[in-house]
Structures are given as C-alpha cells and as structure tokens.
Amino acid sequence: MLPQNTLSQAHKMKLRWFVTLSTVPLFGVVTAFGIMPQTVFNTAKPKTVVEEIALPAATQPQADGSAATFWRSERVQRGDTVAELLHRLNVDDSAATDFLLKDQSATSFRQLAVGKEVQSETAADGSLLALRFLDNDGNQAVIEKNGSGFASKSLPAQLEQRIFMRTGEIKSSLYAATDAAGLSDPVANQMADIFGGDIDFHHDLRKGDRFTVVYEMAYSNGEPIRSGRILAAEFINQGHSYRALYFQTSPTHGDYYSPDGKSMHKAFLRSPLEFSRVSSGFSLARLHPVLNTWRAHKGVDYAAPTGTKVKVTADGIVALVGKQGGYGNVIMVNHQGRYTTVYGHLSKFAAGLHRGQHVSQGEVIGYVGMTGLATGPHLHYEFKINGVQRDPLRVALPDAAPISAAQKAAFADGTRELSERLTMLRNTRLAKLD
C-alpha cells in the first residue's frame, strides 16, 4: 500500500483550480490560485500563481455595429408601483421613472390592469430604451427613448383571431353553466340572443340541458383582447336540439341560420328582458294584487330590479310613449301592420324616444319600474295580433327571411365544417376545449 501522502497514477494528471472573480462592470482582474498536487516522489512544493486576465466587454457589438440591448417581459401584479415594476424589468433609469410617474402621455402605463404584460428594452447599464404593452383598450402602446427624453405613441392592435370551443350543462341557470364552462358574458349573451326566438331562457330551461359553442377570440401579442363572434352553437333544451350556424350573406352582413337554412332570428324575441323571473303569467282570471278583484291578466309580468333594460322585441314604429292608466309609464310599438307589443310600469324611457320613431329588434327603449298599478318593480309585457292579446310565451312567432335559393349551395359548403365540429362535441363531457 502506498503512503497516504502519495497520489495514485490516475490522480497525477489532475489539477484543481479555484478561481475568484472580482465584480466589476466592464473589465476586472481575475485572481487564479493553482495548487499542484504532490508527486509520487514528494519533491514538488505547492506554488501560488497570480495572473491578471482581462474580461471581455459586457456589451458586444451586433452584426450592424450597434450595441447589444436586452429584452425582458413581466406582468403587472396586484399592488405594483411604477418603481417596483421597473425594478423587475431590470430598468435602472431615474429619468425614465420620472417620465412614467408624471407625464400625461404615460397615463395608460400607470393605469394598466393586473395581469397585463409589459416588455422592456434596456441598454447594458439598465437605461430604458423602450417599453411596449397593450393598454386597457387593446391598443399597442410604445414608450421610447427620444434624445434626452421619452415619447409615447399608440398603434392599432394587430389582432389575430383564434377559434375556441366550449361545451357545458345546465345545473341551475344559464350564466352559472356558462361561467363553469369558461364562457365570457358577451359570448353567453350572444348565445341567448341566437336561441332567444326558440327558447325562453326565463321559463324553458331544465336541469340537464346542454350547449356547445364554437366562437372567435381576438388576440394581440399572444394576449386575449376580447371575445368575438359565435360561429356555431347548439343548445339541447328538454331533449330538443337547436343548431345555429353563422353565414356571411354579403360583404357587410351575416346572420345565424339552422342547418336547413332557416333564420334563427324570429321576427319577435320571446322576451323583452335578457334574464329575469316570470312573476305572473297570461291568464283570463287572476286576482289583481292592487285592486283585489278577479280580472283577466292578458300579458306576462317579469320581475326585475328597477332600472333593468327593456328591449323592443321586433322592428317597429313607436305608437305611444307616455302615461296610461294602470300601465303607468308605457310604450306601445306597432309591427308589420298586425302586431303590437306593450311595455308597462316603466321607471323611465330611453333618451329621445318619441312617437313615430323606428326602433330595431333588441334596441333598449325603456327601464323596469313600478309606475301605475304595481306592488313592486316589474315589466308588464303584452303581445297583440290584430288588437287581441295573446300569450307571449306560447304564441307562434313569425320567422325572419331564410337563406335565399341562390345562396343555398354556398351556405352548405361554408358551414359544413362548423356542423361537423358541433357533431363531434355533442357528447363531449369536457367543459373546455381549445
């Protein structure tokens, strides 16, 4: 056995280096300590070697001769200050900090919402060269070094459309189900409008009803900006399937149609309110809550908070805006010569609404109240055919115009893939599919 201070042949060729680098911005001194191991003859003595080595410049020129710059990306966090965000972006520039804190043109930066992404371009010394971010309106904002100061500009967002698919099941309400499926409120509202002529979302929903939606989302720089248009949707209500496919009938107009080309938009909406509760239905004999007498109730009452928006259910001409007996504040609208709709107990009318005005389906004409003979805030809605009240929840509503014969082939070709997506997703139990 060799003595403990004698190295094996395998270790004779090894050399350990312990290197300590002093910290300097650009150039520095490297002190290297080399310790030679003892030989088998134990004749060599340890020797310390000190050598000065020049470090390469921290900023290397690029191919075009300009100095290298550095990009960093961070997201706005809750409670962030301008200084904290700049620190995470590796910005060390008092002039930039002062500009971002005080200049009017940097307001959009100071008001960025939590979660928004900010990109910084800095020089090697931490001075700010540029900031890029999407402002709260979705525009591309740029703050750049400009001489001894900074300048801001806003550019229209370069949008990319992505297609998303969602499917869900009704357990309590439409909005609860769409929230669980990850659908935004604007997309949920679109779905309610599309199927509103066939399904009364106040009255007809059942636990176990299912929906599938194919829709667009607008992205800019990889960030979602806003929900887009529904391209296709299916709603299975009480076992009956309703499908809607979007089709562009002209360069400036598109609409939703069933797979056989019928318009999904009825000439009338089933309800003048988006979501509420039917508090009193159509009846030929009802005990009046105020007069305490039995009399016919030839309309439908929708309970809703005061101020809830009331939409006209079809295109038409305003016949009356004002007060009338037990209706209180009331609006009456004539449609297609033989139909009339009535909206009573309103708290107020839409600004500027007047007799003889043309109104379009879905346009807000008033707001829920409790004027006239009413015990609480609600909307009294009537649907008349040739002057005779009919049950708005049960009357057969006329259809809007279908796909023209000349466009049937183009419609079939243009919506085939959308129909296939709906078929594929019909029995999918996942809430989210991207």
Question: Could you please describe the fold and organization of this structure?
Answer:
It is built from six helices and 25 strands. A hairpin with an 8-residue loop joins β1 and β2. The longest helix is centred in the last third of the chain and has 18 residues. With 434 residues, it is mainly beta. The two termini are 70 Å apart. The relative contact order is 0.09.
Quickly list its features:
about 425 residues, mainly beta, Nuclear Transport Factor 2, Chain: A, 10-stranded antiparallel beta sheet, 6-stranded antiparallel beta sheet, about 15% helix, about 40% strand, elongated, disordered C terminus
Q: How would you summarize this macromolecular structure in one to three sentences?
A:
The chain is mostly beta strands. The chain has helices at 82-88, 94-102, 107-110, 174-180, 185-195, 408-425, and strands spanning 16-21, 30-35, 70-75, 117-122, 128-134, 140-146, 149-155, 160-169, 210-220, 223-237, 240-250, 253-257, 277-280, 283-287, 294-297, 300-303, 309-311, 316-324, 328-335, 339-349, 358-359, 364-368, 378-385, 388-390, 432-433.
What does the radius of gyration come to? 35 Å
Distance between the termini: 70 Å
Task: Output mean pLDDT.
Answer: 80
- Backbone structural class: mainly beta
Question: Number of DSSP helices?
Answer: 6
How many beta-strand segments? 25
How is the biggest beta sheet arranged? 10 strands, antiparallel
- For the record, the CATH class of the largest domain is Alpha Beta
Share of helical residues: 10-25%
From the spread of the alpha carbons, the general shape counts as elongated
